[in-house]
Write a structure and sequence with these properties.
The chain is of the alpha/beta class and 245 residues long. Helix content is 44%, strand content 20%. The protein has helices at 17-28, 32-39, 43-53, 72-81, 93-106, 144-154, 174-194, 199-209, 214-222; strands at residues 62-66, 85-90, 112-116, 129-135, 155-166, 226-233, 238-244. It has a seven-stranded mixed sheet with strand order 3-2-1-4-5-7-6, with helices on both faces. Helix 6 (144-154) links the parallel strand 4 and strand 5. Helix 7 (174-194) runs antiparallel to helix 8 (199-209).
């Protein structure tokens, strides 16, 4: 099945979506953290903590962080969950390099390692991880069904899935306020800080197109997960999905 956000690309028809997403994140890697926290007014840190807290009762020892970016989610998981190992994977070498530098400064390089991977074709073994998590990256997948199936494959039976993703509010007045913010302020700030004229127009467009709530619940169930639940935060600006293999 094809979902609307899979057809949205940062740079038009200039390569596949995966190639364009890789190029985009390579280009904004060194301004990504600043933009993330600025554009969300710092609320993204609260959303990440809520996602990690959902894993606490399960005490995962080996964690896969998909679309790890600069490693913020992996570092938070290392500090809060104290696992034996976390593998952060991403398409973008630029983002991974920033992640390695941050992890080294934090003294977490023995717990967290980074590896370049295409989430649609993971080179990882079956049933290898107690938990798989994704923060604000799943809407960039070129093939959502295939990516979720791969995540399910590498997870141990009984393992936990955690996805936290930005979503577009659907109720008045937040729906209207979000459209104004995402189509005017977000691209303007993105251009100012990252100097990429298109990246921060692409990102809100994928937020609006990405399946959410009950629709995403059904997609996760079809991918092989059970006990799929979701919870919305901050008037629907972010949604947490949890599930079990």
């Amino acid at each position: 099945m094809t979902y609307r956000q899979e057809e949205i690309t940062p740079y038009g028809n200039d390569g596949t979506k995966g190639e364009q997403v890789e190029r985009m994140f390579d280009g904004i890697a060194h301004s990504y953290d600043l933009l993330n926290h600025t554009l969300s007014f710092g609320i993204d840190k609260h959303w990440r903590k809520a996602a990690i807290k959902s894993l606490t009762p399960h005490a995962p020892k080996h964690i896969l962080d998909v679309a790890t970016g600069t490693g913020d989610f992996a570092m938070l998981a290392a500090r809060e969950l104290h696992p034996e190992s976390i593998l952060g994977i991403d398409l973008s070498d630029g983002m991974l390099q920033v992640g390695r530098e941050k992890t080294a400064r934090a003294g977490l390089e023995k717990t967290i390692r980074f590896q370049k991977e295409d989430c649609l074709r993971l080179s990882l073994s079956d049933n290898a991880f107690d938990a798989v998590m994704v923060a604000y990256g799943i809407r960039n997948f070129e093939d959502l069904d295939r990516g979720l199936s791969e995540m399910c494959r590498v997870m141990k039976p009984g393992g936990r899935l955690v996805i936290i993703e930005l979503t577009a509010p659907r109720r008045f007045p937040m729906k209207q306020l979000f459209r104004l913010y995402s189509h005017v302020l977000m691209p303007a700030l993105g251009r100012l800080i990252s100097r990429d004229n298109k990246a921060y127009a692409y990102l809100p467009a994928t937020m609006e197109a990405f399946p959410q709530g009950e629709e995403m619940q059904q997609i996760l169930s079809r991918a092989g997960f059970k006990e799929v639940r979701f919870k919305r935060y901050t008037f629907g600006l972010s949604t947490l999905y949890t599930a079990t293999k």
